[in-house]
Design a protein that fits this description.
Elements lengths: L3 H11 L26 H12 L8 H13 L4 E5 L2 H15 L7 E4 L5 H9 L3 E4 L22 E6 L9 H11 L2 E5 L7 E2 L2 E2 L6 E5 L12 E5 L2 H11 L8 H4 L39 H12 L1 H22 L3 E2 L7 E2 L4 E6 L2 H13 L5 E2 L21 H4 L1 H4 E5 L6 H12 L4
Parallel strand pairs: 2-3, 2-4, 4-5, 5-8
Antiparallel strand pairs: 1-9, 6-7, 6-11, 8-9, 10-12, 12-14, 13-14
Amino acid sequence: MIKTDDIKALIGEHIPPYIYNSKSFDPGKTTVYYSGPFWDQKEISASINSILNGKWITAGENVFRFENKFSEMFKVKHSHMVNSGSSANLVLISALKKRFNWDNDDEVIVSPVGFATTISVLYQNRLKPVFVDIEWNTLNFDVSKIEEVITDKTKAIFVSPVLGNSPDIDKLLELCDKYNLHLVGDNCDSLGSKWNGKYIHEYYVAFSNSFYPAHHISTGEGGMICTNDDELKKLFVSISWWGRDCYCIGSANLLACGTCGKRFDKWLDSYDGIIDHKYVFSNMGFNLKPLDLQGAIGLCQLDKFEEIDTKRKISQSRISKIFTDNIDGIYTPNVLDKSDPCWFGTPFICDNKDLKNRLVQHLESNKIQTRNYFAGNILLHPGYSFLDDHSKFPEANKVLDKVFFIGAAPHYTEEVFDYIESVIKKFDK
């Protein structure tokens, strides 16, 4: 019979480093993925060990420790893990609406360009997304146009920095202060990005993160909602754990009893009897828990974050130079003076649609992955077209025609950079 310790030993012997993005690169045959998990034996061992230990399957000790370590590293008071970045956005907006007593049809200002679940969670919470066109040189929403769409029903500005590149946070804060608005962040593409020497997320009342394989750190799937507001944290836990009132369940996972010491106190004024605190439902919620093995992986990923941040910046810089040195009519988005992006990818803006299409086809045919800048203008898509008239946002409408990105991945080697350059030099300009 194979013992647990034998299995653990085999993991180290047979799992190669960076199994998704192999360090062995064969030019023209090995795909240059735009991203992928920066894992080695440590993440694989941690995930398997979390199962072999037989203590937790769903969120438990590892998740709790990951949340605490994440908070400490990224200078925020509360972090709560869920099963995806999209779930993080859903919980984020649901909690904000209840915490600050937003009414149905209250308004949140967003960019029309980005990812779908930055927008869908507003509609799902009966809030109205109010769109502001982008500025072409940064691809972020045009901060100068925000004030003209603010009304008495506006409650927040929802920021989603383009691939980690921040809009003007100072101007956004001025608007929030002037009109008593909340600055909220979709931080899924910008973990580690900074503004004026501080993490971008330090300026938000609350923010989401994603740990999908393409993102800065990965737990396979997974997300995190963060805030310094104690009441918001309670709502994060409740809404993502079925709507239960028992906001103490996160730390209680480390206790033998599995809950707080007030479990059987009187909790319902409407019921004259004993009721278990774990089954008082104060909110309408969901089951959005992560697995404990994801927390185990996350702990390993945080140990690598400084390396990941450095390598992503190097990759973006090297690849940007290769393209702009060799191709006319292509440029990268402007980075504001106070912005220090931790790049999700390497974005390019083309002078025309034909150039973009030919270049994307050339790259893909040579096994270099590309991506559109997500949805482009989300209002062009059938599931979102009813929200507003896409023709009102001419700059956003150009994104699908002229913008794409490739990787800024931390696993890129000199061989990869050399190969990308060789492919670009063969492009029929």
